[in-house]
Every structure is written in structure tokens, then in C-alpha cells.
Amino acid sequence: xxxxxxxxxxxxxxxxxxxxxxxxxxxxxxxxxxxxxxxxxxxxxxxxxxxxxxxxxxxxxxxxxxxxxxxxxxxxxxxxxxxxxxxxxxxxxxxxxxxxxxxxxxxxxxxxxxxxxxxxxxxxxxxxxxxxxxxxxxxxxxxxxxxxxxxxxxxxxxxxxxxxxxxxxxxxxxxxxxxxxxxxxxxxxxxxxxxxxxxxxxxxxxxxxxxxxxxxxxxxxxxxxxxxxxxxxxxxxxxxxxxxxxxxxxxxxxxxxxxxxxxxxxxxxxxxxxxxxxxxxxxxxxxxxxxxxxxxxxxxxxxxxxxxxxxxxxxxxxxxxxxxxxxxxxxxxxxxxxxxxxxxxxxxxxxxxxxxxxxxxxxxxxxxxxxxxxxxxxxxxxxxxxxxxxxxxxxxxxxxxxxxxxxxxxxxxxxxxxxxxxxxxxxxxxxxxxxxxxxxxxxxxxxxxxxxxxxxxxxxxxxxxxxxxxxxxxxxxxxxxxxxxxxxxxxxxxxxxxxxxxxxxxxxxxxxxxxxxxxxxxxxxxxxxxxxxxxxxxxxxxxxxxxxxxxxxxxxxxxxxxxxxxxxxxxxxxxxxxxxxxxxxxxxxxxxxxxxxxxxxxxxxxxxxxxxxxxxxxxxxxxxxxxxxxxxxxxxxxxxxxxxxxxxxxxxxxxxxxxxxxxxxxxxxxxxxxxxxxxxxxxxxxxxxxxxxxxxxxxxxxxxxxxxxxxxxxxxxxxxxxxxxxxxxxxxxxxxxxxxxxxxxxxxxxxxxxxxxxxxxxxxxxxxxxxxxxxxx
Length: 777
What we know:
Residues 515-756 form the Disease resistance R13L4/SHOC-2-like LRR domain. The chain is an alpha/beta fold and 777 residues long. The chain has 5 domains: 20-128, no CATH class; 156-305, Rossmann fold; 314-375; 386-478, Orthogonal Bundle (Arc Repressor Mutant, subunit A); 632-777. Helix content is 40%, strand content 14%. The protein has a 12-stranded parallel beta sheet, sandwiched between helices. A 5-stranded parallel beta sheet has the order 4-5-6-3-7, with helices on both faces. The protein has a 4-stranded parallel beta sheet with strand order 22-24-26-28. The longest helix is centred in the N-terminal third of the chain and has 60 residues, at 4-63. It is elongated and about 180 Å long.
């Protein structure tokens, strides 16, 4: 019995130990089973977050049209599958019968746990995967070279200027402007191609974009070009704002240089999607335009003007195009040089004419080409397409008023046209119509001139003179002659056959050798006739004006004519008449029939002594009357004999600008007393004025009054009684541009700042105000 008890106790102890171990293992199994599922849930949540982050990044890149990496897509696919599988395991665990968190069905529970462990391991590996980039880089050509058709001449300086501005971090937008075909595109293409090769010390942009714009470009056109250049997929279902956002997102992440060629009008950066470069960003926008105003409207930090080639550079270029060298026949070289100069340094014209020159190796052929260039350049092969048509686009952009203003650069000789001369003719044409005084007319003219300058059709010279390029002149003449269909519509050549006048509308025969005109000539369409400075022309037949019913502008200044024919009265449409610097002694009474005359100039007609009564008073449309250094025989009372009644001048209610000559103090007082005439007086010539011994500030106030503040020129001539001229305060009263002293013996006292002081045939002593005489002038 004693031996049995220990055995029983030992067996019970072993059984209890076994039960204890079994219970402990079961407890541990239950705990680890639940922890496995919990860990799986945590990893699934972590994987889900990473999955969403990658999806967000991919969507962002897709908006920028960046294609996801293949390994990222594989990962996403695998992650999605593993998350579905893991969630199925978790859901199955939650749905089965458990005892102390352990499935009752031990076999199925064991399999489920094994799957959970495997899923956890796979998901863990997926979570540890890192993707520095999720999409392919945008495959962009950093720069695309432009084909340049010929060697570049004369652009070294302007190209260096462009490079200098482009390297300046403070300069973001650069405008390049100049006339058509002057080389703006070539300059921009050279700048583009300069990026094809790396340069030491230069920080190259990520992308250089060259866009060649059409004249009638639209926002959609530009956006399509940018989409293509930036490798962005074009979608028709997007609206312009959405497309702009895509462009902006791409460009904002790049250091870009955007080159816009041939910009005609202001481009709204925001609407297109072009981010405005910030100072120091290394991003640049550089554009070319014909319109200087576009540079301002586009916010250009710097403007660069491209000029025509200088004479020698143009000649070198022409030699290159025309294959002219030292061995070329001297006759050919001389004629070639003439042709080159006729192109005015315009590269497109030099190329066109030079290519023609290259096929001609005989002097007679070249002389014929010179004749064509002089008279009808549009007939030269290639000139219309390559030179005139591009220039015409700029001309077509102008208003009708500005185009008519440009006519007068074609109808006038000389490279330097004074602003004053243009104003006068524009008044006659009706381009400048409503103006209050000369300054107002100058303001209106200045606006027109600025418009033409901004369109690169004319150029300002020395402030008050302007010139038009010969090729622009040729273009306007070609357009005005209905693109060459009516060659004789405008006649501006020298030595024009009079017979051609019959079909012409405008004739400019200035400074030629015309010495005689036909007795009678029917010119039913003629509106403009310029015969000035034909110094051999002494007579105008009476019948010449009988059949010119449409004539509006007649310029006879500087001719040797001694009389106007009575038939001038038949020119009832005439608005402009200039007979200045002629030898005319009297005006015909029929002149009073010119009821539409707005501008009448007869200055420096020293021989003019007779004007019939009721001629001036009939010219009620006159706005501009210039009689300085001309007729001076005014009578102040209607009952007096001799001379023109001064009241006729006073009756001209529309008169705004007056130049007048007077020879008596009484006439001067009458002039200053008439408010309208006094305010209109710009040029005053005083002759004789006997009994006037001193002209000082107080007498100026007395004579001129407050009304005569618009005087620009004061001439004192042959005033034998005048002893002293005090001009100390004349600048405040008159602000004169010219003070002209002629045939006087006077003391000139005080300080005066006219633009010009003319002293002729005088004995003049000049001294400061309140100072003793010290010197002779």
C-alpha cells in the first residue's frame, strides 16, 4: 500500500503538469492568434494610406501629362489585391465561432492564422517599398534649333544687347521691335540657337520654347503650340481655363525661356497660361513685334529696336547675296552699289534685289533693274511677296486717318520732312480738322506721328523732322495704285508726261524742271497737285484749272509764277492753297469763290501789293492763313481808299492760325484789340511802324495785350524810327521761337530765350536789362 500511494501521486503530478502545459499553450495560442489578426489590420491600414498617397501623386502627375512608372503601377495592383485578401481574412476571423478568441474549429482556424501570417509578411514588404519618383520625367528637347537661311550681317551689336539683357536677373520680359522684314526674327532665331551649345558660366534653362505666331493667332492656337512643345496631351473636352492651368503647372516647375515671334497685339499671359516670370527666377519672355506700343502693353522691362543695316554693312550683305567680289566688272559694281542703296538697308529688300543681281551680269540689265526699283519696284520678281506684302500688313493695321496721314511721306520729296509742313498739308487734307490753335494742331499731329512711328512706318529725326523708309514709301505707293493695277493713279516720278495727268488722282512733281503747262487739260479725278519748287515755271495757263473739279490741294510755293489765273476760282473743292515764295503781285477776285478753302499760305510773297475787296472775307472756312512777310497794305476804315479792309480779316470766325504783316502802329493796335485775331496770331512781321521809337515790355502789353500769347515768330524789319527793343520779359509774354531783326539800328536790352535769333543788315547794341551799353552785336 505504501508503495502504491507514491505511484499514484507521481501519476497525478504528471497529469497535472500535462494539463498545465496544455492550458498554457492554449492560452498563448489564443493570444497570438488575436495579435496576428490585429497586426494584419494595422498593416492593411498602413498599406491603404501609402496606396492613397501614391494614387494622389499619380493623379497630380497625370494632370501634367506625366506617365506613371511601370513598377509603381505593378505595386499598386499588388497592394490592391493584398488588401482585398487581408480584409477577407480579417472579416472571416470576425465571422467564425470562437472560444477565448480561438476558432472552435481547430483545423480551419489553423489555416486562417497561417494565411494571416503570410498576408502580413507580404503587406509588410509592400509597405517598406519606397518610390522617389512615381512618373517618368517629361521628355522635352531643351532647345530645338531653328534653320537660318543666310549669313547674318550687321547684327553683332544688337545681339550682344539682347544677350546682356537676358543675363540680367532683374530683366524678365524683353521686347524687340522694328519695321517688317528688318531682321527681328533672325535675331530671335540666333538667340534660340545660341542655347544649342553650352557656354561656360551660363546657367542654361530647362527648356527654350520658340513660338512663331500668326497675325490672326488665337488663344487656342497658342495653347496648342505650347501643349505640343511641352509634351502635354491635348484634350478637346478641356476649356481654355483648364488648358491654361495645365500649361502654368508645367512651366511653373521649370526654368523656361519663351520666345514669341511676330506678336501683333497684346497677349494676356494669364489667359494663355504663361506664368509671369519673377525677378531672379531665371525665366524669360522675349518677343518680337512691329508695334512699339506692344512692348509697353506686354510689360517689357527692356526694349530693343532693330534698325536697318548701316550703309557699309548693307553693301557687304548685298555683295554676299549678289555674289559680287573684287573681280566683278567695275560697271556692275557701281550699279550694284546704287541698287543696294535703294534698298535702304532693309535685309529682305537686299536679299530680293541681290538675288536678282546674281543672275544679271550685264550693265544694261542692271540699269533696267535700277529703273524698275525707282519707278515700279513691285514689278521686280519677289519684291511683292517678300517685301511689299509684309510691309502692307503693318499699313493695314492703321486707321483710315493714319493711312491718309502716311500719304504725305510719299507725296513729298526729301528724307527729312518737317512736322510743320506735315501739319499744314494734313489740315488741307482734312486729317487735322477741329483744332483750337496752332499748339492744338501740333498736338494732334504729334499723335498721328507717334502712331506712325509706333507702327515702324516712319522714324523721328532730330525731334521735329521725320522720314519714311524707301521700301515703306514704295509699298504705300503700290497700295495706293491698287497694288499696281493702276500705275498712273499716283504720279510721283520725276519728268512725268503731262498726258498721264488725265487719269491721275494725285500728282507730286516737286522740284522738277517743269517750265510750261498745257493750256487745257481734263483731269476729272485729280485731288492733289504739288508743283512746288519748279523754279522754271513762270506761268499757269488760264485753261489748266477749268477741268479739275475734284482738286483739293494745290501747292505752287517756290515757283516763279507772277499771277494766278482767274480760272482758279473754278476749283471750288480746293481746301489747301500755297503760293508762298512766288512773284505774284496781285490776287484775282475769283479767288473768293474758293468757299471750301481751309489753308491759305502766301508768306514771303514780297511782290504782292494788291488784293481785291471781298476776297478774304468770302473765305469763311479758313482755319490757317499765313501772310507773314507778305501783303501789308491794310486799311482800318471801310471808307478809306487803297488796301484791304482789316475788317475782312476780323470776319473770319473759323480762323485759328494767322501769320500777318503790318506796317502801322494803328494796325497793330487794331490787331491786338480783336480777340480772335490776336489769339490766332502766331507769326507777326512789323515793318516801318513810324513814330514807334521804343518797344519794351510795357508797350508790348499795351500793343499785344493778354490775347497775343501764341506768337512764335516776331520779325522787326526796316523800322527806321525804332531806337530800342526791350525783350527782358518777352519770353513770359510771347514765348517766341524766333526773333528776327532786319534792317534796324537799335539797342537790344534784356534777356530773351527764343529758339532762334536772326539779325540781318542791322546795327544792334545788346546789353542786359538796367545795364550800361558794353558791346556791339
